[in-house]
# Entry
Amino acid sequence: MSLSVRVQHHLSDLDLDVSFEAPPGVTVLFGRSGSGKTTIVNAVAGLLRPQAGRVAVEDWVLFDTDRGQWLPPHRRRLGYIFQEGRLFPHLTVRQNLAYGRWFAPKGGRREEPEKVIDMLGIGRLLDRRPAGLSGGEKQRVAIGRALLASPRLILADEPLAALDEARKAEILPYFERLRDEVSVPILYVTHSAAEVARLATSVVALQDGKAVRHGPASEVLADPAVAPAGVRAVGAVLEVQVAQHHADGLTELDANGARLFLPRIAHEVGARLRIRIPAQEVILSNQKPEGLSALNVLSGTVDSIRSGDGPGAIVSVKTPAGNVLARVTRRSVAALNLQAGSPCHAVIKTVALAPQDVGGRIATGL
# Structure
């Protein structure tokens, strides 16, 4: 199922005017606070009535201002996952899940509770109440409750924002499974580049109420002209395959013939993954470096250079693994005499690739 969104709405501090088509999978609304992400989600949910627009999941029209169509929120068949689980505190996990299933349409497609419970790993929690759950466990139950309502569309508004890094690492694989195993479009709000790189099937980059870029995560995050979450969010997204786990604690990755090493990851040999390499973790050399501790050196040519208003520049290097971005100074660009077509070597510290920048197994078509 695909999602079509067109929303125009004027707020006191924002003129929202966006239009995009979202394929099956996870479509991420990505941008700084105040860029319009939550406003779009609230319009889709029916919590905000926009001045103009149309939203539809396939032929299921949620609203169309041109035709005067408007479905009230309770009839939109949506699953909404908030920053906090928002579970009923007086009900057990089992009863919270049953509440979601109560909203599933009679005679329609219904998710089996056993399948959802197994997918989310919450079987041992069923008799507990929310007060006895961790933040990550609450979010998994909230995901299960949304799924058991058999929604046509799932909305997730910064569902990891209230969690610490350990809980985020716990929850991200479940969203990856949700993306890969459930045939329901997911509209996901975040300002985290790491979440985008791991989860997104497509990305809508927002800035001041406008969609400044729409496409695959690898293209949007690699575009320094967009940088919806700031220049520190700029980075490359590469597709790799686990080649070998070494006895010294490193995992070797095959990136289209190039080799990359990072601290051991919990994926079997042969698994295909996405990894994000932040631009600020890459240094450049116009000669192949020798005598360095860095294990990851990708050789290629300069594809483009974009200078900012300050002293910095973003250099895109075309390598066999894909385009890699480096955030360097304009002085370094001049000192290395870098220009489009110049031979260049991108050096990446092995330990610079953080666990949150390593995604789970890639599903077919992502």
The first helix runs from residue 37 to 45. The mean pLDDT is 87.
